[in-house]
């Protein structure tokens, strides 16, 4: 059985895949760098909120007050074999993947920290600059810039480029997308979107430099000249030259028409369809009033496995003048019972708890994926014994039989009393079998 949190991760990953696929197909080559960046970040967060929204199509059915006790819950799964604390293999596999990604991030952070310790700190206003000897690719993280000393002395445009990353707070984006990639490591579109967001950072930084008046041709030549080496600091925004051709082409690209921004609306139908697909319809029972006794209805949070029984009628034998049994039975409202039946010192709630503790989900129904509600009727006799058990609503023979087995094995009750005499009381008792 898949744990709920994995189902949540799966749904969120599905939303992310739809959104990222739309971005890659429609918006990837537009020149709205800042807008696309904001849309990617907002969409990423929204895709983690949408699985928490439960949209259900409700199918309304009518029922009588005798069945008002129904509510869905998971029965105690007794008899499935010895209970162990072992985690299911999907959880182990997922956690292992998360640990691998986290380990890679830790390695990158430690490598960056070691490089900073080796460098020379240069006092600067508004940011921290570390100069390192050797051929080290420049990068920035939060308000900290690391550069090769030779690049700092020879190419001031590199420092200005890194300052653009700091000015636009690109490190926060990197932090968010790294966390998303760690959680959704199994989704290739997440990794592609992470790389696309990093490329948007470069586009935005390049655009900022050009707007400041830098010579675009000389800047492009610098990019080509520095397009060697490797990117070793994945947690930082670097003056790296991956996809250099796209960056230079984007500098020459005309601005996309502003109305293209509205193309993001096109993803909404796909998201809506996915939401409805992830939220199947459910049945809702509308109760038609009969003889409902409010004090006997169990709050939903009390017993999640088995619904409480509601006494249907009080039955007793009438006695004639010579004290012989007349042999006829009369029914009066349960509210008129002087002393209600008790189960082990409690009431029907206590009995519902007892039943839930003794239920076993039949293997036949479990393997077939059968679940549903069985409604029984039984009578607590004037001696407190369980009797007259029958099925009012069947769900499956094996589930019906299990419900009857548990109810029929009930210990004796303390019988109900009316007018000073023990009397039999009939209950209607639903048992909910739910596989999760």
Short description:
The protein is an alpha+beta fold. It has 13 helices and 14 strands.
Order of SSEs? HHEHEEEEHHHHHEHHEEEHHEEHEEE
The tally of domains stands at: 2
Whole-number average pLDDT? 77
What value does the Rg take, in angstroms? 35 Å
Strand content: 15-25%
Residue runs with pLDDT of under 50 for 5 or more positions: 61-84, 229-233, 285-305, 307-333
- Protein structure class: alpha+beta
Helix content: 40-55%
Q: What count of helical segments does DSSP give?
A: 13
Overall 3D form: elongated
Largest sheet: 5 strands, mixed
Give the termini distance in whole angstroms. Answer: 7 Å
Strand tally, please?
A: 14
Neighbour order of strands in the largest sheet = 2-3-5-4-6
Write the layout of secondary structure elements.
Layout: H1 4-27, H2 33-49, E1 58-64, H3 89-118, E2 120-122, E3 128-132, E4 139-141, E5 144-148, H4 149-154, H5 156-167, H6 170-183, H7 188-211, H8 216-225, E6 237-238, H9 244-252, H10 268-277, E7 282-288, E8 310-319, E9 325-332, H11 348-358, H12 363-368, E10 372-380, E11 386-393, H13 397-408, E12 416-418, E13 421-423, E14 425-433
Parallel strand pairs: 1-7, 3-5
Antiparallel strand pairs: 2-3, 4-5, 4-6, 8-9, 8-14, 10-11, 10-14, 12-13
Helix pairs in contact: 1-2, 1-7, 2-7, 3-6, 5-7, 6-7
